[in-house]
Amino acid sequence: MKQGILLLISICLLLLSGCQPFTSEQSAEAIGKGEDGFITNIDPEAKTLLINSTYYKITDQAQIKDLNGEILDWTDVQIGMKVKTWYTGELDKAFPNKGQARLVLVLTDESSLREREAVTSAIDYVKKSESQQFMVLKLTHIPEEDIYDIELMKRSNLDESFTVMVDGETKEILDQH
What we know:
2 domains, 5-stranded mixed β-barrel, alpha+beta, 11 strands, Nuclear Transport Factor 2, Chain: A, globular, CATH 2.40.50.320, 40% strand
């Protein structure tokens, strides 16, 4: 019995020894994983990026990096870049969503760079004015024919999506439907 009480006290002391008061770092907002996608709008004044259907605010706490870990400047960001995103806090579920970026990782592998060129070609083709904004809903690569099917939608939830087919080699637009 005495050994059981000593064991229980030892376990409690061991558990309590790991408890420390929260620091400001530990109580910081959680970081969430955003969708992988393509930058389709850059607003330098508001410092926001439209990636898929989410606007990410780039604050002083946010970092933009490439796959080599190099920190990129805001001016290095371009339409069509394929990225992975992480955000702090909650995403505002409006359409498009809104959130605060924590990390924007620019994908610079060969496949991502080819996809970037295809997305840029498709957006350039459908964009009639600077104020038009598009979201990439889906990108499919058909390797046998080296064709990219890119499903786009204007930045309004009232619009229907459409698909632009881009030649993977020449980046020429083959079809829009």
